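Running log. JK asked me to keep both predictions on one page so they can be read side by side. First protein, sequence followed by its tokens:
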Amino acid sequence: MEKFEVTILGCGCALPTIRHFGASQVVNIHEKLFMVDCAEATQLQFRRNRLKFNHLGHIFITHLHGDHFFGVIGIISTLSLLGRTSDLHVWGPTGIEEALRPQIDIFCPGLSYSVEIHPLDTKTHQMVFEDRSVEVYTIPLRHRVPCCGYLFKEKPLLPHILRDMINAYDIPVSQINNIKLGMDYTCPDGTVIPFTRLTTPADPPRSFAYCSDTVYKPDITQYLQGVDLLYHEATFSDEEEQAAVRFYHSTASQAATIARDSHARQLCIGHFSSRYEDENFLLQQAQAIFPNTVLARENLVIRL
């Protein structure tokens, strides 16, 4: 099966602590890296997790708060120092061009590559990127500033070749991709071998949703139905629901409710308030509603 995994680089909140890095994750889909949010020290965490800078093509920013954005210029500078030549695409809410371009002009003159900045409408659910492997959609969220999450949907995979059948009929390597695409194979004597005898069904496509800073917003479940892995912020405990409303964040139980109503397969909660020294009680609150919940932590890798 092709790789589809999520690496947590940071899961802390706005106030820095020695326990957590700021928000950032890397999604590896078929060895192509997509970064979601990019706080301070993200590139340090990128190195620590032995991720490959040359495989990073896109950075998706949820909103323009520093604990999700301050690390972007560092990544851009480092990529130039490494001699990058291919374009880097940075996606984010309206205003991202005005926030990032002056930093590039001041701190990174003479880049070895081009940075393409894509402002997004955070109020709509739309596909903003696709290639041969994946489609990326925005998820409208509600925070103190324009904010959206992102949904990564793997495209349908090809069937698996039965190697013993290929060997039995002495089928040349040049025909394997055609068989995967649904073509029958005709032997030299004219015998037609249906592709269904030569393959097994493909693995179901996988999906990952990242819902960063947002007040409890149950209508987003319509975009998340059946998602394999949902990351949802759980900044506050249930006891501090009023604070969650005031600061446009969610509680652990609210994140779990979103996962339950989305029929997600797994939930990962993060973006923990710096006031908590142990987030296990947040995990317990979430698991009371959605049992298959895990706590985000730095350097955690979740494979789908």
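And the second, directly underneath as requested:
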Amino acid sequence: MDDLLAGSEIKLLKNGDMVEGIIMSVKKHEIWVDLGPNGVGVILRREAGSGDMKEGDSVTASVVDPELDEGYALLSMKRAVKERGWTELQRVFEEQEIVEVSPYDANRGGLLIELEGIRGFLPVSQLSAEHYPRVEGSDKDEILTKLNSLVNKTLRVRILDVSRRDNKLIFSEKEAIRDDMASRLAELKVGDVVEGVVTGVIDFGAFVNVDGIEGLVHISEISWERVEDPRKYVKVGDKVKAKIIAIDKDRLSLSIKQMSEDPWLSEVKGFKKGDTVEGKITRITPFGAFVQLSPAVEALVHVSEMSDDESVDPEAIFKLNEKKKFKVIDIDTDNRKIALSLRDVK
């Protein structure tokens, strides 16, 4: 018999084979399929999927057991769908195709996605700058809220990793826009003025989405004034213009303040070495005190210029927001520094 089978076109079924057949009968709990030379197969209802089926329909199924005690094969249409799905996903991965997906759910780590009947995951770290959930600190509830806003939204992604054996499917939105972003970055240079939308505001600055490219405006580049809290100057959703001051791989360093002339340069012209000036104490440190001379000009009175007493304590001499008179002892325009003396005034 084995020799006869080997010499014919009939191949013995084995577990995992994909077979095609014609539905012979549709019962309440099972579907019977004519497999031609391979005999008869049965598909249990739970393995048939949700589609309507009737006698005469062609079906494709995966062999679960090639021969039950009764002599027919046990089949699964659901498994067949998955088998074809994994094959297609492997092809998409190898050819680095960009596909469109719609997340069906989210958790704090990322988005849940189903493609070709296989469930996968898009980690937060693989989201584009446009969709990355910028939040203060590590507020996981706020991250989840922002991720939920992406559920059912169409995203363009690439498959980052696929493993049928490990049942693993990982997507990346960043990879899908990588080539496009690289070409856009190549067109930009330091000094260019760009427009973007603020996507996050944190203690050290603000993140800005510039046509899909992530930019950072450091707190020191938000305003010519001393900025204590960036939130008082920009908020999420604001459209801003900024100058590119550095390009680091796939991120831009931006400056909002350089879009306007430095007021320090014009206001400092009102002071000269030897002048007696009045200013308000803005900060007190162990090495000295900072003094506001005009809206844009801040100067330093070093501890050595406070008193003849070498052990002087700045906090014993100054109080925040009080006004005092000082003598200008140096103006360094290149480094935007002015040195004052309290001792010389006395």
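Observation for JK regarding the second prediction: The chain is about 15% helix and 40% strand.
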